Amino acid sequence: MQRVARRVVVGMSGGVDSTVSALMLKRRGYEVVGVFMKNWDGVDETGVCSADKDCEEAERVAKQLDIPFRAVNFAKEYWTEVFTDLLDDYSAGLTPNPDVLCNSRIKFAHFHDYALENIGCDAIATGHYARNSYGQDLEYKSNDVNNPAFLLKSMDRTKDQTFFLSQMPQNALRNTMFPVGELTKTVVKKIATQSGFPEIADKKESMGICFVGKKKGAGRRGFQEFISEYIESKPGNFIDIDTNEIVGTHNGVHQWTIGQRTRIKRGSEPFFVVSKDAESNVIMVASEADHPALYADSFFTLSPHWISGAPDELSSRSCDKTLTCEFRFQNVAPLTKCVMSYNMSSTSNWEYMNRDSLIVSVSEPVKSITPGQFSAFYKGDVCLGSARIARPGPSLYTLNIGNCRTKIRDRIESSRSK
């Protein structure tokens, strides 16, 4: 097949994956341009701007590769299109995923358009562990709208990043290469070392939200300290779901997420967040890490984003308008089988299929289904897309599965009577 791309813009971060991506494309004969995206203005708790350090490293790599280099600042776009939404979500008691939003709204929107329109490239490339059904060189790219590109899992399943790309627009995927998607992380590091970048290969991977400091000692800033700089404290109560007793206080629902261990010290048992209510400012907690209130076997979503078009099964009478597939709502979580369908809505006169909402039933109860997070859906190697979780279905505790609620309360009463 003939190549459709000659000049490729690589998003460079100064890390090993983008370095090897640029290196491989150059070796394959492409005209490669390296571009660093600055998405956040500010310094960490040590007074250093990590973005500036990363930019310097990316520029050094580009110079060593002998490719042109540019830096582009999308901090304003990130603030207005990602960060302000993140603050609104946390204030509403949700737990957003800024990495998914950054990819869909910044990297594969503003960066993609900048590369094509300002640099005049034929394609972009990133160091994500993923694959494109159009092939490594986009050799199978088609202008036929009935032949879309599909986002595929990477060969290295332990490093697969399709979850973070699950809101990716189709028009960007059609123009995107993933050079390391066919390789394992071990091989990528070996390539970097053997090609004169041993210090890049040995760098620690960046984990978590890029603009939040790492809590590793006195004076270091963690997430709760960071978010408190933008959202005012709003003290409320922790309430034990089993006894309905107040067991502690908190400074706001925005500082906690479902399943998180609290700092409540009451006897020997730790307490874990079960649910949050932004209006009443109450956080319900349970004294067991595997409390049945943390588990549900269904959840509801907001409007789904289908990367390559909505699956036919959801509209097919032969499939009962249901789709059997797999999902995850955390990148490191194992895939879980599920059955989904469009949710039903009604007016005073009739009931109708609501394509802006999904109801997802899972094959086995899932822990800590978290409103605000994205649930990514998979069919084999294909990442179909994702949808934000609106709310979990009733918990095992609410349904009293296996008489669990009664047993817990009987146990509490027994311990009190001793």
Task: Write a brief structural summary.
By secondary structure, the protein is α+β, with helices and mostly antiparallel strands. The protein is 26% helix and 26% strand.
Describe this structure in words.
This protein is of the alpha+beta class. Helix content is 26%, strand content 26%. The chain is built from 10 helices and 18 strands. The chain has helices at residues 16-27, 50-65, 75-91, 98-119, 170-173, 185-194, 198-201, 223-227, 396-399, 404-417, and strands at residues 7-11, 31-38, 69-73, 123-125, 130-132, 151-153, 176-177, 236-240, 246-250, 272-277, 282-286, 295-301, 305-306, 323-328, 336-346, 351-367, 374-379, 382-392. The strands form 3 sheets. The chain has a 6-stranded antiparallel beta barrel with strand order 12-16-15-14-17-18. A 5-stranded parallel β-sheet has the order 3-2-1-4-7, sandwiched between helices. Helix 3 (75-91) runs antiparallel to helix 4. The longest helix has 22 residues, at 98-119. The radius of gyration is 24 Å and the shape is globular. It starts with 6 loop residues before the first strand and ends with a helix. The model is unreliable at 213-219 (pLDDT under 50).
Number of helical stretches of at least 4 residues: 10
Can you list the strand order of the major beta sheet?
Answer: 12-16-15-14-17-18
In angstroms, what separates the terminal alpha carbons? 78 Å
Unreliably modeled segments: 213-219
Give the biggest beta sheet: 6 strands, antiparallel, barrel
Portion in strands: 25-35%
Structural class: alpha+beta
Helix content: 25-40%
Q: What's the alpha carbon Rg, rounded to whole Å?
A: 24 Å
Overall pLDDT level:
91
Number of strands: 18
Order of helices and strands: EHEHEHHEEEHEHHHEEEEEEEEEEEHH
Global geometry = globular
